[in-house]
Amino acid sequence: MNDPEKEISLIVRQLCATDSPDVQKATLEKYMTSDVGFRHPVCEVKPGPNSRDALLGIFQWYRVLSPQVDIEVESVVFDPSKEVLYLEIIQWFKLGLLPLKPAPARLLTRLQLRKQAGLYYIAEQQDFYHTDEFAALLLPISRPFVRICLLAATFASNILVRGANLLGFWTTSIPISEPTPSEAGLYDKDD
């Protein structure tokens, strides 16, 4: 890539949503290093000699599982000093056999780039999902149930910390019942 910030959206589309396996393969081989690493909630490719071939298999299986994928890169941030791209992505992925409409799933992708001969190549990809977003990706109707579990865990945390506080663990010097200004913070000035 000459200009990763401008080019990456098309590359993502060609890797994840193209109708042609040949375009997908050519894109992966053109923009990823031969020793690329990949981390995802359900699979991983360790960086090493010819690891790009293993990653190609994952991208191909992704399309077999979901013959029709739509993907949109919402925002891109490039840090040239660290050679890192951050992408905010929404994808619509549906397991081919399920008679359900695909639900949008948001993820953040971190791409570690490597500059060779004046061009940037993807040396590592890491995909990050919230729990409910990942559940929606696999089975859209599971999202409300996962959100209920997340809310239950929040409720349980708050109940359990009160018990821990009563036993002297992780207590603050300000009583919980004493209100604190919600706008107080680092940037407050004494003017």
From TrEMBL:
InterPro entries: NTF2_SigF (IPR057514). This is SigF-like NTF2-like domain-containing protein. Residues 1-169 form the SigF-like NTF2-like domain. It comes from Crepidotus variabilis.
